[in-house]
């Protein structure tokens, strides 16, 4: 089943904690610290896979997590690194931050593999903290937390040419004649419920990719019909073939139809209105005019060719004019840069997510203005692996509070010398 959007949470692995241990061997009276470092947490990696053409497998799973690093061990053993998680997506997938909509990565062109979230670093074991004055460090460093981010995936097809027009303008029939694609064709609105890609192979071997975008309707740029679902797929195209029912078999005026679709393209993305456009006036084999009436093909030409938009009469059913149309499209493509539209990264997860690496709260006790309460999961864990009775351990604890902004938060709340700070059953007197 085709799916071009997905939303879920990705989490990189937590770094393993450093280990606290001491060398204990026979005939070694005072072995030093030998606690090893924790392993690195696994990364979250995205890869572009040319064998994929849908995001369907991501529609019903809400969370993907890399492996956590293992805790360090005795005898200076390094903990095992956590396993990376590699998520494969079709080429052309845009990865966005779900909250801001900013772009994290465009998985197209040369960007085949990108680390989106890095795993947390492993914590140092106590073997790193031995000094001449502190030979028995009874503390180690905790592993860095992983990063968590909700993202959206949005597939924008990679095609040179976008084929647009109202339903039943003949786009699918054209695609089936000029490419190797085999779209379903029938005579009712929204026959095509997903974009179709096909390769146009020219006689000289210089081909191009064309995308049939399902029939648009007025209001598509505001989400009417299937507008949002499909308009994104022409954003990368370099040339637009605007197909119109020149015979008006569906009861639409061909000139007004072209203007309506162009207005929807411009409303959705103003840049689309600037793309080179060629009009394919279809169904010329069934045009019927009464004596004295202007041929609708002449009317379309008179309206648009003075504006620099060439009009090519075709019949997608009989094949009339298709070779001339494809040659004209190729000529325009050759005059343009060969690279499709690509999107630059505007959101860098490490600049945002790591700010929440140490969530904590600092509040005043409502019963006593001289008592402050500090809480947070990382703080609680740090207290568990730090020996506060040791001078070096207590100094490590003080640096921890300072480095992570907790002392600054206390000062902003007005803490004074002699006030009490409570943390998970422990309390300390504050002195600057």
Brief overview:
The protein is of the alpha/beta class and 432 residues long.
What does this structure look like?
This protein has 432 residues and is of the alpha/beta class. Helices cover 19% and strands 22% of the residues. Strands 10-11-9-12-13-14 form a six-stranded mixed β-sheet, with helices on both faces. The protein has a five-stranded mixed β-sheet with strand order 3-1-8-5-6, with no helix packed on it. The chain has a four-stranded mixed β-sheet with strand order 15-16-17-18. A hairpin with a 2-residue loop joins strand 17 and strand 18 (426-429). 39% of the residues are buried. Mean pLDDT is 83; it is low at 185-192 and 220-228.
């Amino acid at each position: 089943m085709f799916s071009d959007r997905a939303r879920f949470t990705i989490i990189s692995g937590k770094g393993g904690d450093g280990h606290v241990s001491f060398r204990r061997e026979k005939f070694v009276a005072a072995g030093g610290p030998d606690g090893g470092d924790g392993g690195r947490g696994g990364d979250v990696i995205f890869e572009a896979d040319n064998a994929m053409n849908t995001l369907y497998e991501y529609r019903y799973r809400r969370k993907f997590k890399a492996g956590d690093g293992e805790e360090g061990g005795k005898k200076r053993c390094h903990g095992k690194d956590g396993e990376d998680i590699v998520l494969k997506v079709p080429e052309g997938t845009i990865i966005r931050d779900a909250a801001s909509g900013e772009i994290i990565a465009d998985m197209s062109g040369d960007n085949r593999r990108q680390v989106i979230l890095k795993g947390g670093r492993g914590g140092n074991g106590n073997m790193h903290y031995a000094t001449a004055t502190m030979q028995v460090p009874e503390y180690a460093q905790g592993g860095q937390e992983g990063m968590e981010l909700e993202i959206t995936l949005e597939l924008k097809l990679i095609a040179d040419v976008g084929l647009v027009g109202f339903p039943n303008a003949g786009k699918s029939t054209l695609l089936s004649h000029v490419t190797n694609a085999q779209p379903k064709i029938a005579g009712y609105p929204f026959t095509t419920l997903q974009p179709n890609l096909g390769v146009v192979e020219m006689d000289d071997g210089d081909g191009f990719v064309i995308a049939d975008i399902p029939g648009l309707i007025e209001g598509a740029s505001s989400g009417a019909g299937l507008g949002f679902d499909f308009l994104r797929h022409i954003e990368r195209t370099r040339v637009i073939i605007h197909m119109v029912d020149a015979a008006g078999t569906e009861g639409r005026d061909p000139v007004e139809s072209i203007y309506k679709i162009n207005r929807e393209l411009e409303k959705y993305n103003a840049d689309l209105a600037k793309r080179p456009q060629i009009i394919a006036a279809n169904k010329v084999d069934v045009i019927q005019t009464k004596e004295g009436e202007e041929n609708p093909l002449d009317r379309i030409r008179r309206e648009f060719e003075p504006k620099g938009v060439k009009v090519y009469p075709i019949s997608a059913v009989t094949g009339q004019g298709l070779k001339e149309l494809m040659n004209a499209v190729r000529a325009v493509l050759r005059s343009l840069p060969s690279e499709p539209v690509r999107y630059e990264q505007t959101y860098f997860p490490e600049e945002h997510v790591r700010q929440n690496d140490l969530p904590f709260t600092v509040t005043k006790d409502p019963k006593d203005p001289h008592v402050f309460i500090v809480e947070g999961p990382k703080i609680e864990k740090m207290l568990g692996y730090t020996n506060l009775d040791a001078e070096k351990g207590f100094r490590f604890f003080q640096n921890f509070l300072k480095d992570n902004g907790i002392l600054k938060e206390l000062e902003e709340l007005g803490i004074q010398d002699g006030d009490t700070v409570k943390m998970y059953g422990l309390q300390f007197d504050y002195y600057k």
